[in-house]
Amino acid sequence: MASKDQCTPAFALIDDDGEASEEKKFSWPPLESNPEVFTTYLQSIGLPTTFSIGEVFGFDEDLLAFIPQPVLGIIVCYERLIAKSEYRDQDKGSEDDYDKVAFYMHQSKVLDNACGIIACLHAVFNCPLVSMDQTSVLGRFKQSTEQSSPTEKCKALENNTEFQKIHKVHASKGQSRTIDGDQSKVKHHFIAYCLDKDGKNLVELDGTKAGPVIIGDCGGDILRGSIREVRGKLDRGEISESLSMMTLNLSQE
């Protein structure tokens, strides 16, 4: 098992509400928590090549010094150890905070293991530096859902066959292909961290929660603010030490 200052590869999680599953025409396979897989996936659907996904190898300052700056968003994949009913009140999220961020969507049972791409959408669409071709898959999805509620955004992704085809291709890359056929082995869940519209408060974005979780002022340091949050979850026994963290940043090439 990894220590609290190390990150290990992980995969995506199906929500655990215990709600009855809807009949699914497409079963979203999990993505490997792999920056190369995520970068290729996102750039193939419209993320400008000036942006990419990087990896956090550990939480020690010596390791953080190697991460390209600025960090524009964070994607975390971890194993949850507690049920939703055990969340602290401040961690449940609120629909009252929908407008605190530029983009927030819910995750349904239909989107089962799509939490990886949902975390990416949360990170990318809440980064004011990212502008994309409106004719791309990302651009069209963002434009078509700008006035939609979080639930309507969820439904739009459920029914987006273009996204489904591309997602399946990238879910077969890396080690993800080893669990593609048996999704019951998936135990992890992806979430994102970003700044609010004012660029001040750190926000946790998890589509399985009621809404965004406003964490508070992080001094503009998304990376270290997110690490503090993850360490808090570890200390409280809410997640296991099997986790990984990735960054949205400017490409270095």
Structural descriptors:
single chain; 253 residues; alpha+beta; six-stranded antiparallel sheet; 6 strands; 18% strand
* Spans of at least 5 consecutive residues with low confidence: 8-24, 176-184
Supply the number of helical segments.
7
Per DSSP E runs of 2 or more residues, the count of β-strands stands at 6
Give the percentage of residues in beta strands.
15-25%
Distance between the termini: 34 Å
Query: Approximately how much helix is present in the residues?
Result: 25-40%
String of helices and strands: HEHEHHHHEEEHE
Placed side by side, the strands forming the largest sheet appear as: 1-6-2-3-4-5
Q: Kindly report the average pLDDT value.
A: 88
Major β-sheet annotation: 6 strands, antiparallel
- How many whole angstroms does the radius of gyration measure? 17 Å
Q: Rough shape?
A: globular
Report the structural category: alpha+beta
Topology:
Elements: H1 35-44, E1 51-56, H2 61-64, E2 71-80, H3 115-125, H4 137-144, H5 150-158, H6 161-171, E3 188-195, E4 201-205, E5 213-217, H7 222-235, E6 239-250
Antiparallel strand pairs: 1-6, 2-3, 2-6, 3-4, 4-5
Helix pairs in contact: 1-6
Give a structural overview:
The model is unreliable at 8-24 and 176-184 (pLDDT under 50). 26% of the residues lie in helices and 18% in strands. The protein has a six-stranded antiparallel β-sheet, sandwiched between helices. It has seven helices and six strands; from the N terminus they run αβαβααααβββαβ. With 253 residues, it is of the alpha+beta class. Helix 1 packs antiparallel against helix 6 (161-171).
